[in-house]
UniProtKB/TrEMBL annotation:
This is Maltose alpha-D-glucosyltransferase/alpha-amylase. It comes from Sphaerisporangium rubeum. Residues 18-430 form the Glycosyl hydrolase family 13 catalytic domain. One of its GO terms (biological process) is carbohydrate metabolic process. The keyword Transferase applies.
Length: 569
C-alpha cells in the first residue's frame, strides 16, 4: 500500500496508548503524576512506536471516580498542572509525531459541578433542565445499574428540590440531559475548545448511555429527544468541520449486530472506531481453554466496519476486564483459570487483574497474546504498563487495582516520584518495580518491552494487517488460530498456537503466485507454498508466526543471505 493512503486515515494502523496522567510520572515531587512528568517521558512512547496517546480524564474533579466525576470541562485538575503545562506536553508529543486524544465524558458531571449546584438550588434554575428530574423515580432495571456492588438504583432523591435526579453511574454523577439543545451546544463548545489546543479526537465514554429519554420535566423530554445516533452524527460532523482528520473512539459494549449501528451502519458517519469487546472476551475464553475456536468464531461473526471506520482491539483497558458477553458457564471458566479468588473479581462480571499475573508470568503465553493484539484486524490499543508486564495491586478498591503508578526503575518509588510517600501504592512482590520496570527491560533483548517494540515495528511495516480484507483459515487443529489479510496484491498469513504443546498444522493458502514464498517476520526463514496450497507449519508451544508473501528476490534478508554477501569470491 502507498504510505500516503495510510497516512490520510491515520487511525487505521495507529498504535494507541492509554494512560492516566495522575499515575504516569510525577514532575514536581508531590507524589502525583502531572503533565510536566508526562512530557519528560514522551520519548519512551516514541521509542516504543506509539502514534497516539489517549489521556484519561485530567479535568478538575473531586476524584471520587478517578477523575470521571468532572467539575470543569474547560480546565486542568490543579494537581496535574496548568493549561500551560498541558500545551507544553502537546508540543512535545507533536514534535515526536504523536497525536493525542482524550476522554470525552459528557454522560454526566460531578454533583459538585457549578451546573448541578445551580440546578438543584431551584426548580426555576437556569441549569435545571440540564439534568434529568422526576417527581417519582421510574422503575429500575437491575441490569441497567452499572456498579451493582455500590448502587441499587438509577435515581437519587434531592432533598433541596424535592425531586429525584437520574444517574446511570454513581449517585454523585448526575446525568446530563442531552435532550436539551443548550446541553448539546455546550458539548460542542467543549470539543472545540480542546481541539483548538491540539487534540486529534476523543474516546467517548459509555456511548450507548449518551442519550437517555427518561421523560421528566424537560420540554423535549417526550418524543423530541434526538436519539444517540443523531447525537453522534452531529458530533462527528462538528469535529470534521474543525479538523478533517479528527476521530471518535467509542466504548460500545454491545453484540455485533447492535454495535455496528454506532459506526453509522454503511455510512460510517458516527463513531470512527469501536472497541471489539466481543473479540476480547472470546480471546480470554480461548486462553482459558487453550483452544482458539472461541476467538475464531468471534472473528468470523464480526461485521466489516464501514469504509474509513475501524475496530479497536485490546487485551485489557483501564476498567475492569469485563466478561459480560460470555455465558455464565463460559465466564466461570475464565474466572476459574485467571481469577479464582472473589477478591480478583468485580461486579460479578469481570476481573480486576492484569494479564501477566493471570498467566502466572509465563512469558511465552504473554508474548503470544501481544502478538495477537498487533496482528488481528483492527487498531491495537494498549494500557500503560502493558509494555513491561505490570501487575495489579489487589489491596486497592475495585478497578483502581490496575491503575497503579508506572514502574520506571527498580529504585525508590519506582522512579515515578521523588516524594516521601505516594497517595496510590505501588504493585508489590513478583510484579513490583524491583522485577518489572522500564529501565531494566530497555537493556534486555529478551524482555517484553523489546518484544512489543518489535511487534509495533512489524505492525507498522505491514499495513495489510490493518487495512486488508481478512479471512479466518482452517488450521486443522483447535489449538491454532490462522488468519490472512489481503490488499492490493499483498498477503499476510498469521498463526498463533494457544496450547502449551508442539503442534503441526496444515493451512490451505490459495491465490499466491507460483514463485512466491512466505517469509517469517518474527523469526528467520521462508516457507514455500506447495502447488496445491496445503502448507504445513510447525508451531512451538504458545508460538506465533507472521508470514508475508513475496517473491524470493523481495523477501527480507536473513542471516544466511548476509553471510553469502560477506563471503570471499
Amino acid at each position: 500500500m502507498r504510505l500516503s493512503t495510510t497516512s490520510d486515515v491515520w487511525w487505521k494502523n495507529a498504535v494507541i496508548y492509554c494512560l492516566d496522567v495522575e499515575t504516569y510520572a510525577d514532575g514536581n515531587g508531590d507524589g502525583i503524576g502531572d503533565f510536566r512528568g508526562l512530557a519528560q517521558h514522551v520519548d519512551h512512547l516514541d521509542r516504543l512506536g506509539v502514534t497516539c496517546i489517549w489521556l484519561m480524564p485530567f479535568f478538575p474533579s473531586p476524584d471520587r471516580d478517578d477523575g470521571y466525576d468532572i467539575t470543569d470541562f474547560y480546565n486542568i485538575d490543579p494537581r496535574l498542572g496548568t493549561l500551560g503545562d498541558f500545551v507544553e506536553f502537546m508540543r512535545v508529543a507533536a514534535d515526536r509525531g504523536i497525536k493525542v486524544i482524550a476522554d470525552l465524558v459528557v454522560n454526566h458531571t460531578s454533583d459538585e459541578h457549578p451546573w448541578f449546584k445551580d440546578a438543584r438550588s431551584s426548580k426555576d434554575s437556569t441549569y435545571r433542565d440540564w439534568y434529568i428530574w422526576s417527581d417519582k423515580p421510574e422503575p429500575d432495571d437491575p441490569s441497567g445499574v452499572v456498579f451493582p456492588d455500590e448502587e441499587d438504583s438509577l435515581w437519587e432523591f434531592d432533598e433541596g428540590s424535592g425531586q429525584y435526579y437520574y444517574h446511570r453511574f454513581y449517585r454523585f454523577q448526575p446525568d446530563l440531559n442531552t435532550a436539551n439543545p443548550e446541553v448539546r451546544d455546550e458539548i460542542a463548545r467543549i470539543l472545540g475548545f480542546w481541539m483548538e489546543l491540539g487534540l486529534s479526537g476523543f474516546r467517548v465514554d459509555a456511548v450507548p448511555f449518551l442519550v437517555e429519554d427518561m421523560g421528566g420535566d424537560s420540554e423535549e423530554g417526550d418524543g423530541k429527544l434526538p436519539d444517540v445516533h443523531t447525537f453522534l452524527r452531529e458530533t462527528r460532523a462538528f469535529m470534521k468541520r474543525r479538523n478533517g482528520g479528527a476521530m471518535l473512539l467509542g466504548e460500545v459494549n454491545l453484540p455485533y449486530p447492535d454495535l455496528r449501528k454506532y459506526f453509522g451502519d454503511d455510512l460510517g458517519d458516527e463513531v470512527t472506531m469501536c472497541f471489539d469487546f466481543i473479540g476480547m472476551q472470546r480471546m480470554y475464553l480461548s486462553l482459558a481453554r487453550e483452544d482458539a475456536s472461541p476467538l475464531a468464531e468471534a472473528l468470523r461473526e464480526r461485521p466489516a466496519p464501514p469504509k474509513d471506520c475501524h475496530w479497536a482491539t485490546f487485551v485489557r483497558n483501564h476498567d475492569e476486564l469485563t466478561l459480560d458477553k460470555l455465558t455464565d458457564d463460559e465466564r466461570q471458566e475464565v474466572f476459574d483459570a485467571f481469577g479464582p479468588d472473589k477478591d480478583m473479581q468485580v461486579y460479578g462480571r469481570g476481573l480486576r487483574r492484569r494479564l501477566p499475573p493471570m498467566l502466572d508470568g509465563d512469558m511465552r503465553r504473554i508474548k503470544m497474546v501481544y502478538s495477537l493484539l498487533f496482528s488481528l484486524p483492527g487498531t491495537p490499543v494498549m494500557f500503560y504498563g502493558e509494555e513491561i508486564g505490570m501487575g495489579e495491586n489487589l489491596s486497592l478498591k475495585g478497578r483502581e487495582a490496575v491503575r497503579t503508578p508506572m514502574q520506571w526503575t527498580p529504585h525508590r518509588n519506582a522512579g515515578f516520584s521523588t516524594a516521601d510517600s505516594l497517595p496510590v501504592p505501588l504493585v508489590e512482590g513478583r510484579f513490583g518495580p524491583k522485577n518489572v520496570n522500564v529501565s531494566a527491560q530497555r537493556r534486555d533483548p529478551d524482555s517484553l518491552l523489546t518484544w512489543i517494540s518489535t511487534l509495533v515495528e512489524r505492525y507498522r511495516e505491514t499495513p495489510e494487517l490493518a487495512w486488508g480484507d481478512y479471512q479466518v483459515l482452517d488450521s486443522g487443529t483447535p489449538a491454532v488460530l490462522a488468519h490472512r489479510a489481503d490488499i492490493d496484491g499483498e498477503t499476510m498469513v498469521v498463526l498463533h498456537n494457544f496450547s502449551g504443546q508442539d503442534v503441526t498444522c496444515e493451512v490451505l493458502i490459495e491465490g499466491l503466485d507460483e514463485d512466491e514464498v512466505l517469509t517469517d517476520l518474527l523469526i528467520e526463514g521462508t516457507v514455500k507454498v506447495p502447488s496445491d496450497g496445503r502448507t504445513r507449519f510447525d508451531m512451538a508451544p504458545y508460538g506465533c508466526r507472521w508470514l508475508r508473501a513475496s517473491s524470493p528476490e523481495e523477501a527480507p534478508a536473513d542471516s544466511a543471505d548476509i553471510a553469502d554477501t560477506q563471503s570471499p569470491d
